[in-house]
Amino acid sequence: MNADLLVVGSGFFGLTIAERAANELGLNVQVIERRHHIGGNAYSENEAETGIEVHRYGAHLFHTSNESVWEYVNRFTRFTDYVHRVYADYNGEVYPLPINLGTINQFFRAAHGPAAARALVQELAAEGATGDPQNLEEKAISLIGRPLYEAFIRDYTAKQWQTDPTDLPAEVISRLPVRYTYDNRYFNDAHEGLPVDGYTAWLERMADNPRIDVTLETDFFDASQPWNKAATVGSIPIIYTGPIDRYFDYSEGELAWRTLDFEEEVLQVGDFQGTSVMNYANRDVPYTRIHEFRHFHPERDWYPKDKTVIMREFSRFATRADEPYYPVNTAQDRERLLAYRELQKGEAKVLFGGRLGTYQYLDMHMAIGAALSAFQNKVAPMFGAGA
Ligand code: FAD
Ligand code: UDP
Questions:
Q1: How far is it, in rounded angstroms, from Cα 361 to Cα 172?
Q2: What pathway does the annotation place this protein in (predicted)?
């Protein structure tokens, strides 16, 4: 074994630390990854029959307002000028999202200007007001009123979380804005785009350094491989980006996650839905949304004109055998997480990071931003540098 630093997990958090440690500090970094590929959930590959890039773990849209993250990611890839827009099918009619003047006017069969629409929504919101919103349902009603909530949020959320919206934290939808203009950009960030030659090329460039060794299909908890937990903890600094409860053998109980199932299909048509993402708001449609990957890259003129790839997305609770995607974050989960954070303090040479290691929903730019700060404030000082 010849490495200065062990990184468990090759997602954006792990790769950012590995890249900085190798390029900035000249360290030898061993990365181990359980899956057969690099990149964690951001991994993508070209579908075999069509050559269309498919995001294997669900559509990934890059966006950020953090200038240092934007500068950093541009070292490894250029971005297209793709701007994400989402539409929703409700009762067989298609509406623009996030809820904006177009959605409101279509829904109420009206031609309101911004002031009238705002007054209408405020009136509807006041009808359902309960004071300080304590859960997702109360929060949504306080923002958009009951009719819009019941159409676009209630059943979609029930499908996505299989949890009563009154038991979900209000924050789940706080990132969904309501706009009194016809602007239907999904994200508000200063920078947005998709990597010109795909996610995997970007991720591979981050690891492209002779000082970084990435070993795939290697599980930290598999005692038969040399970089296992028992052999490494205490003897080498470790960045651990796997699930925090798994690290401690679930001693404080399991943290709840949701996972997704994806049904991919190649269709013999050039365009199936005319846009990249269509949400399905009604409960009787079992999937939450359909992705059509060709629309993420309209600039790729080599994509076939007579075939397309779609992916239906289904959501359900994760078992230990599934990939954990979204932290459920109930009160019990938050209590258990605090107990794990206490245990973490006993692991002096292990840094817990990323989505799984901190039990937090992190967008890519947040995972990268968190890794850049952790590198500066925690990793570099371990080697007598930086901070
Ligand atoms: P991960 O990417 O999960 O990487 C962790 C890695 O650790 C994995 O590769 C895993 O296999 C490995 N690992 C775990 N346990 C072990 C072990 N015991 N031994 C070895 N390796 C192990 N972000 C956006 O910005 N825009 C989006 O549109 C977007 N869409 C998303 C859609 C979905 C469905 C999901 C789930 C996430 C989405 N994200 C999006 C978030 C994005 O995927 C994360 O920000 C990013 O993956 C975080 O990187 P990470 O390194 O923390 O975690
Ligand atoms: N949401 C909804 N209807 C929609 C889209 C989103 O009710 O058509 C709610 C739902 O609770 C979801 C949350 O908003 O979990 C966040 O949605 P977003 O699409 O931002 O999250 P993603 O699933 O892409 O991470």
A1: 10
A2: Cell wall biogenesis; cell wall polysaccharide biosynthesis
- Pocket of ligand 2 contains residue 283 by CB under 6 Å: no
Task: Output the pTM of the full model.
Answer: 0.95
Please tell me whether the interface predicted TM-score (ipTM) of this complex is above 0.95: yes
C-alpha of residue 305 to centroid of ligand 1, in Å = 32
The closest ligand to the CA of 176 turns out to be 2
> CATH 1.10.3110 residue ranges in the chain?
96-173
Segments of the chain assigned to CATH 3.40.50.720 = 5-38+207-255+327-382
User: Which candidate, 266, 261, 245, places its Cα nearest to that of 327?
Assistant: 245
Could you list the active site residues? 175, 179, 258, 289, 313, 361, 363
Counting ligands in written order, which one lies closest to the CA of residue 239? 1
Task: Encode pLDDT of 35-70 as tens digits.
Answer: 999 999 999 999 999 999 999 999 999 999 999 999
Asked if residue 96 has its Cβ within 6 Å of ligand 1, the reply is: no
Q: Is 313 in the pocket of ligand 1 (CB under 6 A)?
A: no
pLDDT, residue 176, reads 65
pLDDT higher than 60, residue 387: no
Tens of pLDDT, residue by residue over 130-171, are 778 888 899 899 889 999 999 999 999 999 988 888 888 887
Predicted local confidence at residue 2, as pLDDT: 85
> What is the edge-to-edge ordering of all strands in the sheet holding 5-8?
212-215, 29-32, 5-8, 238-240, 350-352
CATH 1.10.3470 for domain 96-173 = no
Binding site membership of 368 for ligand 2 (Cβ less than 6 Å): no
Ligand 2 pocket residue status of 43, Cβ below 6 Å: no
**Tokens 């974050």, residue located:** 329
**Topology annotation, domain 5-38+207-255+327-382:** Rossmann fold (3.40.50)
